[in-house]
Design brief:
- This protein is an alpha+beta fold.
- It has one domain.
- 29% of the residues lie in helices and 26% in strands.
- It is built from one helix and six strands, in the order ββββββα.
- The strands form three sheets. Strands 1-2 form a two-stranded antiparallel ribbon. Strands 3-4 form a two-stranded antiparallel sheet.
- 12% of the residues are buried.
- It binds zinc ion (2 copies).
Amino acid sequence: MRRRADDEETSAYLFCERCQQMFERVLIQECSYCFKDFCRNCAVRSGNTAFCSKACAEAWFFAEADEEEAEEEKRKP
Ligand SMILES: [Zn+2]
Ligand SMILES: [Zn+2]
């Protein structure tokens, strides 16, 4: 994956893809599901993980559940 060239003047700020605004880097998180950057205002928390949207939080929850089920299937003789 190619990294975007960091402009030193703007590198302290990141763009929230949800509300289309710039925020300090420390206020921006990456969605665990779709990897979009989002700010604290847009964050949807689910357990210990923050997501950019409720849809991602739910999709992540179901993806995790599917994986666990698949793992158990494999363990059965
Ligand atoms: Zn936002
Ligand atoms: Zn997301």
